[in-house]
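During the reporting period the student researcher (J.K.) took over the structure-prediction task from the postdoctoral fellow and processed the backlog of single-chain submissions. One of the processed entries is reproduced below for the supervisory committee.
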Amino acid sequence: MRMRRRDIIDQGLQRIGNNTESLRKQARIKLNRILQDLYLQWDWPFLWTTVPITVPTNGVFALPTDFLKPEDDQALVLVSTMGTQYLLPLQEVDHLMFAQVARPGTEATLPRLWTMDYATKTGQVWPRPVDTCAATLRYKRLPPDVPETPTQPYDDDIPAFPWDAYLIDAIVQWGMEYEADPRANDQLAKNREQLAMIRGATWPERSFRSTVPLDPTVFTTPWRGE
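J.K. obtained the following structure tokens:
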């Protein structure tokens, strides 16, 4: 059974010998930061998801609120438009290329390219569709922080990160630093080794692409002289 945040913090603080309420309050904040660093610094299978997207006729659509980054450069897939079913990946390009290619006012039944604006968390396709399009987006999500107050919902929450033992050890290492415990560096080294083992077991063979495809907007099929 997965552990609640309360249990993770309790075990960590008991191991360092300081389970006062003042340190517990700080541990709640620290656990949020530990989780955020794990989500941002590493790609985990449980963070990848697919959601439906509606692309309006102006070509601009909102990205999910928990959007962090697309899975790859063909993560946006057109599913249907004008009553016709498709399974058409749209090529993602950078802003400069999009500005060079996307001629204003161009419309078509099927968009071909898309780009993102991280500042506004929106995506934009080109050409603009003549009718609303249904699509799907594969992306890495960022689980939101759980507020530290009220404490009961926080303590009862089960973190998205499934390796409870690592989270306990991370709290222990932080607590040792807080207590100026000389064993903190040893615990940090153990945590790094443990994280490396978790990472190695997380991505089994054939669970991700073995090769990276070339950008079809730059590279074409090679001429074979036949």
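The committee noted the following: Confidence is low (pLDDT under 50) at residues 220-226.
J.K. will present the remaining backlog at the next meeting.
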